[in-house]
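Milestone M4 deliverable, item 7.
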Amino acid sequence: MIWGWGRNIKVNNFVHHGNVDNVIVVRRSRALGDDAGATGAPQNCFNWSIKGIEHHGVINEYVIRIDPTVGLRVASTELTGDIEVAVNGPFVTGGIVDPSMSSFSSLTLTVRDHVNLKTIIGTPQQIFAAGNTFASFSTGVTDLRVQALRNARIDGVEYTLADDTAVAVTPPRAAGMYLITSDTSLLRVFVGFRTAGGAQCVAVGTEPSLFTADGTDGTLTGTTGVDTEFTVRASSAGPLYFENRRGASVTFRVTFLG
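Output delivered:
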């Protein structure tokens, strides 16, 4: 329905009947003219305001997605604003957000299933972490922003990492503490962190076996840390990184405190 990129984009009251691949795509157009032959990722996609968008029909992929090519994707820090979309929830085939947007925390989505009367409000990062399908949410309004302020109901936000993969999580503030818990891997540890003034993660007390809190500033890509271990790291760019190299999938929860 909507495809493009740019600053201060505003679209209101757009209704479409029929099948689409995605409702909104943040991506260069690959068209003739000024955008011909684009070689880099879109930048400065700030202050988007897209309201009153309705789609009636099948969505073959996602409500919102970004470029499938890594080098051409808009960065998580380059997309900000508010988007409101209503869709037929049972006919969303892939998910609410593109999995490649799992670290996007500066864009607020309000996505409504006007068949089952469900409304989900949150960032792409929050929606992806909470299940990313309308079936993951109860009828009524689920405001993930409120849950984040309440430390995600004290249970933390749950993530599942396959072996040799990592996830970036933007903390609510630049310094504090977080608790990692896991039912299946006995991964339970309290970590102090900061992402400014010398980014680092430090475990409080004795580190569990097969766990490392990396005290240096940087990222984790999935194979950065020691093989067989679960590694955490902070970046001065803003995110915290969680990496699983334990040899099997690990499901864990992160709760921010202080």
